[in-house]
Design a protein that fits this description.
Two copies of one chain form a homodimer. Chain A is an alpha+beta fold and 437 residues long. Chain A is built from 16 helices and twelve strands. Chain A has a seven-stranded mixed beta sheet with strand order 1-2-3-7-4-6-5, sandwiched between helices. A five-stranded mixed beta sheet of chain A has the order 8-12-9-11-10, sandwiched between helices. In chain A, a hairpin with a 7-residue loop joins strand 10 and strand 11. In chain A, helix 12 packs antiparallel against helix 16.
Chain lengths: 437, 437
């Protein structure tokens, strides 16, 4: 067993956070303990290093479908037993599938941690699936897709924009999967995927709460530790994205659209793929552009030019592969989307050309670091911050030293980051009201 | 051995062409003989039912790369021996890789057919590859890509448009492969691909020329017939395309562009996937829209409106999976591409709304059938017509009865076909001169 405390003096100096420990069990499962003694509660999460971007070709949606099926019971605990137990203990549970990971979590009183571990360890290898449960659950997922995407023009545009942005890489495929591929997913697909990825080597246990490393490790050894190792960690096989040298515009006009909108996206480095400081510079730049009320997009498009009712952005920085950065604007009636797009480009170009003021830079950094600190106030989001970072290839130290890395971003770094947002390489989404229909 | 003559009375009635035979050797290889006694020459082609769309994920370009490597020699015939022999015999040779197939052909005097078969059969299983020949040939392919695509804005736009049109299906990947994936192709990739697809079950021999079925089959049995069967035909594994409900516009502006242009593409059924008559209706419709001088696009955009210097279209009808139809227009100086696109849409909408005249319909059909008849005048294109049809899942009878199927297309069918070209689902390519740079 390999125990290491990652919280060195540097981290303690800059962040008065908990001393986070990481332990690797002999079967390869990583155990991360985040002390949080404010309430007698624990958040118990198991993260698997596989998400929708690891769906085999032609089997899109299988990661998400399996997440649903993981609630179908094991030989030891029939369907519903785990959820009933959580409810009986007054706890909460959930699960989520992302592009790069799948995670299961429960929040219970601290004395029930061991019970959660027993149940969760049991379903890591003991899942029982019959066609009787698989087919109806597939209908549930199909209905979920129908409700969320098929009938929502904004969601349809989002899928088309993602597919255009990632021409080759599976980040272009929706997490829930393409309708026609979900329809074909069956028990064998689910079990093959389960056997490939649900192994101790591929899992990360994150426990945040009123616990010590010693007791978590002892419980983990007695539960997860009994699962035999597979021998090697599963490998993510993903094609790399080619460099598409063209601007792409995706337009969707639908009578159901009440509010037109514009988005521009780019593929940019993620924390995992970026050079040192590069992702932090993108975060700071995005903050300067898109912060509510004070961001430049809001100031220029909403306040000065009065052509938008809202404007902002988003950067999916936690990702295994190069990821996406998105800017958006919602037009005031009478503003066409091309005009809005040009105005948005000008805001970015100005940032790349003229840079930022010291005050703007400092405000952006302060806000970023403060937001991260506030997020840690919730035990679940604290656990989630570490889990998502570890599941995408970052380390505990990366998370702990992140505030320093943000502080180190210079005005020149921000200008460089803004230069990445070249309109000639952007993918633009235009959501329009179809007046004719 | 299973011999069948596919040229039934119906075909003889409508087309005074040769009686084409198809034979399947015991090892699964199909042998097609197309008598053509006009000159004492034969065209010898071997078609494999695998093309770039069968490249394994992350290994784009392997079908095309292997096509290059197939000239690197076998134990029996070292590198250059086959080509030297063709030259010595006064013949011609070539090879090509398409989305759905790879083919090798030689054209020689009839008495050398057996020699060609011996060489071609030898390299179906006897290819010898060393790293010494693989690495330099990969550089050749990389240079080919650099020359054709990397430095040509039109080719770059074409790749981006294809990638946008086929978001998921491998028809969106260039035949030559993505640069970064070609760079990683190695000897093992080539041999694994070779072993998977270069089998008698996956091959079609097409011989057109001054030969009889009996002699071709006798030669084939003595050469290809000696290759042991693999046991089963390789399977093409391709994801299906989701229905993307958005218009997509791909813009590329480059200082090197001399002539801007506009293209609109749609995914439409191919002969293999279409309902009976549907692909023929698309062909007739395309003819009506895009025939040189007489097509509606030329008439409306070039002659009437004087906004284009050229306009036309293209339909990739021979394909295993749903395929593409493309319309294009080249603007007169002073016409912007959005205006041109709207005018193009109006021509299509008019066809879908108001239909065609009998005269227009008949002229389109006559021309289509005549073009196909003219193509058969060349032995190589005759052989190619059958080879490509068979390699994508059509039958000899389909090819033979095609003129009748075209004649059966009605004005209503053409209107239906035109309705498939919905601008709200189109992928548009805009090639622009970058004046700023």
């Amino acid at each position: 067993m390999n125990v290491s405390s990652s919280s060195g003096p540097a981290a303690v100096e800059t962040q008065a956070g908990p001393a986070i420990s990481s332990v690797t069990l002999p079967n390869g499962m990583q155990v991360v303990v985040i002390p949080d003694h404010r309430t007698p509660v624990v958040t118990h999460m198991v993260w698997y290093r596989n998400g929708s971007a690891d769906d085999p070709l032609g089997k899109s949606g299988i990661a998400h479908f399996l997440e649903h099926l993981m609630f179908k019971g094991t030989e030891k605990h029939p369907q519903g037993a785990f959820s009933d137990k959580v409810t009986e203990l007054g706890g909460q549970e959930n699960a989520f599938t992302s592009l790069d990971y799948t995670a299961y979590f429960q929040r219970v009183a601290r004395e029930h941690l061991r019970t959660m571990m027993e149940f969760e360890a049991d379903r890591m290898t003991g899942l029982v699936l019959s066609d009787d449960v698989v087919a109806p659950e597939r209908d549930v997922v199909l209905e979920e897709r129908r409700m969320r995407t098929e009938t929502d023009p904004g969601a349809q545009l989002g899928e088309a924009v993602s597919a255009a942005l990632f021409a080759h890489h599976p980040y272009g495929t929706p997490i829930i999967g393409w309708m026609h591929e979900i329809e074909d997913l069956d028990r064998e697909d689910a079990l093959a995927y389960y056997r490939r990825f649900y192994t101790p080597e591929n899992a990360i246990l994150v426990v945040a709460g009123d616990v010590t490393t010693e007791e978590v490790v002892a419980h983990a050894e007695a539960t997860y530790g009994r699962i035999p190792p597979r021998g090697e960690a599963p490998v993510r096989r993903r094609p790399k994205e080619p460099e598409i040298r063209a601007a792409r515009i995706v337009k969707l006009a639908d009578p159901k659209v009440e509010q037109p909108s514009l988005q521009r996206c780019w593929i940019v480095p993620s924390y995992t793929t970026a050079a040192p400081g590069e992702a932090e510079a993108l975060e700071v730049m995005l903050q300067i552009l898109s912060a509510p009320q004070t961001g430049r997009l809001h100031k220029r498009l909403v306040l000065d030019k009065r052509i938008a009712v809202a404007a902002g952005g988003w950067y999916q920085s936690t990702a295994v592969d190069p990821s996406r950065l998105l800017l958006y604007a919602v037009p005031l009636p009478g503003t066409d989307l091309d005009t809005l797009g040009t105005a948005l480009d000008e805001v970015v170009a100005e940032l790349a050309r003229d840079g930022v003021t010291d005050k703007e830079l400092q405000r952006a950094k302060t806000r970023l670091v403060a937001d991260a600190a506030y997020a840690q106030d919730s035990q679940a989001s604290l656990a989630r911050m570490y889990g998502s970072a570890l599941a995408t290839g970052s380390s505990i130290a990366d998370v702990e030293h992140w505030p320093e890395a943000v502080e180190a971003v210079t005005a020149a770094d921000v200008m460089e980051a803004a230069k990445k947002l070249d309109p000639r390489r952007a993918v633009t989404g235009q959501l329009l009201k179809d007046e004719a229909a």
